[in-house]
Specification:
A hairpin with a 4-residue loop joins strand 2 and strand 3. The termini are far apart. Strands 1-2-3-4-5 form a 5-stranded mixed beta sheet. The chain contains 4 helices and 5 strands.
């Protein structure tokens, strides 16, 4: 089941954020610190009340504890360009973070989350969906291409170390 995240999902989301962080740390240890998360519990709780930053979770009923088990999440941000001299006015849904628990991969949870976000973006009148993928994260790049996404722009860098 996919639904908007609630306060009860925060611990499960934090667990997934640790997994995301370690993927990034392994690929870019020069940028990402190990064993941390992008958001803490207080920041997540505040985000749950921000309609411009919906968080969706894929959950499975967990009979033992009576709580839902979070197996995946999608952090989104809705932005709009208005009255811009250069750009047309459009609404965009940006996927800030998407993750499926390492133990639940291969069950098409990522595909279900992406399709849910896609349908949500259409329902609220978005023109497009965007996201960033770090170079070297080939499984993520392949996944997003399989979902029908294409390159919009490329960010380049020179390390001055």
């Amino acid at each position: 089941m996919i639904r908007k995240a609630t306060k009860n999902d925060i611990k499960g989301i934090i667990k997934l954020l640790h997994q995301v962080n370690m993927v990034h740390h392994v690929k870019r240890p020069d940028l990402f610190k190990p064993y941390t998360t992008k958001y803490n519990e207080q920041e997540l709780e505040a985000m749950l009340n921000d309609s411009s930053k919906p968080i969706f979770v894929y959950v499975e009923a967990n009979g033992e504890e009576g709580a839902d088990l979070v197996l995946g999440h999608a952090f989104c941000q809705i932005t709009e360009v208005k009255e811009n001299q250069l750009l047309y006015g459009i609404k965009t849904l940006y996927i800030d973070d998407i993750c499926v628990d390492e133990a639940a991969r291969g069950k098409h949870i990522g595909k279900a989350l992406y399709e849910y976000v896609h349908d949500y973006a259409q329902a609220i009148g978005c023109y497009n969906i965007t996201l960033n993928v770090w170079d070297g994260n080939d499984p993520a790049l392949c996944f997003y291409k399989n979902m029908g996404m294409q390159v919009q722009k490329t960010t380049m860098e020179t390390i001055l170390k």
